[in-house]
Amino acid sequence: MTMNATPQVTAAVVIPCLNEEASIGDLVREVREAVENSGLLADPVVIRVVDNGSTDETANRAAEAGAQVIRETRRGYGRACLTGVLAGPDVDVIILMDGDRSDQPAELPLLLAPLLAGEADLVIGSRLLGSYEPGSLLPQQIFGNRVAAVFLRIVYGVRVTDIGPFRVMRRERLLALGMREMTYGWSIEMIARAAKGGLKVREVPVSYRKRAGGVSKVSGNLRASLKAGYRILLAIVRARRDSLPLPDDLREWQRGAPNA
Ligand SMILES: Nc1nc2c(ncn2[C@@H]2O[C@H](COP(=O)(O)OP(=O)(O)OP(=O)(O)O)[C@@H](O)[C@H]2O)c(=O)[nH]1
Ligand SMILES: [Mg+2]
């Protein structure tokens, strides 16, 4: 009989959500199944849905499915992510993914493997290295991500193909980055700051689905897409200028200030 060591690594899955009642229940169940099947993480893995002022049944659906629901009234994708990271209980690893069921929880082991092996500090699922269902990524999203990737390479010397939402990082490392982008600049800022701090950033191919229902807040809306594009470019510039890790006063700001 072979003895498998009991996994010691604790983790929380942080899912920022705004009006995702159509998908969140199924997603939470998928995440739980994926975590159990992986056998890589210590029980119990916290599935933390950060509800950012949803006006639908998101919070109820998430709680019914067994998630820990955190309410964050200050708006913003990055704000919701950070609130989820800061919330207790303390864990070793943070897993981030979107609430619309576009990411595939079953692919979690692909992201965790390089992190747990110490080969990477930030592992990001790349939809462009992997695959995406027709219509799940719009041409402007693909273009925008490619442009952002070129900037990241030029400014920070880090090579990525995509700026995907499905990612894993040790919580302590993530907090030490001093993240300050509280909207859609969050995703790219994390890569920029990790690279600037000399951390190893690694991509793995993932497959991406169309959102399982509900309404797109970004890509399906021209105004929101332009605004997100602006925030993303701003994040690249700001992260270059800022010191790292952040000084204490900015850390305080990060915890308490209204959404930027
Ligand atoms: N907490 C929080 N979550 C948000 C906010 N806006 C969007 N989200 C969530 O962030 C994730 C990404 O938003 P989406 O609307 O899926 O954006 P997208 O993936 O570009 O668009 P689609 O391709 O239509 O899915 C989803 O889980 C949303 O519920 C926000 O202001 N606050
Ligand atoms: Mg989406």
Keywords, separated by commas or semicolons:
alpha/beta; seven-stranded mixed sheet; Spore Coat Polysaccharide Biosynthesis Protein SpsA, Chain A; binds magnesium ion; 9 helices; globular; binds guanosine-5'-triphosphate; 7 strands; 260 residues
Structural class: alpha/beta
Report the top-level CATH class.
Alpha Beta
H/E series, N to C?
EHEHEHEHEHEHHEHH
Q: Could you tell me which ligands this complex binds, including any ions or cofactors?
A: guanosine-5'-triphosphate, magnesium ion
**Multimeric state:** single chain
Tell how many strands the DSSP assignment holds.
7
User: Rounded to an integer, what's the Rg over CA atoms?
Assistant: 17 Å
Helix proportion:
40-55%
Average pLDDT level: 89
- The number of distinct helices, counting runs of at least 4 residues, comes to 9
Strand content: 15-25%
The shape, in one word, is globular
The domain tally reads 1
Spatial strand order of the main sheet: 3-2-1-4-6-5-7
The CATH topology name reads Spore Coat Polysaccharide Biosynthesis Protein SpsA, Chain A
The CATH superfamily turns out to be: Spore Coat Polysaccharide Biosynthesis Protein SpsA, Chain A
Largest sheet: 7 strands, mixed
Low-pLDDT stretches are none
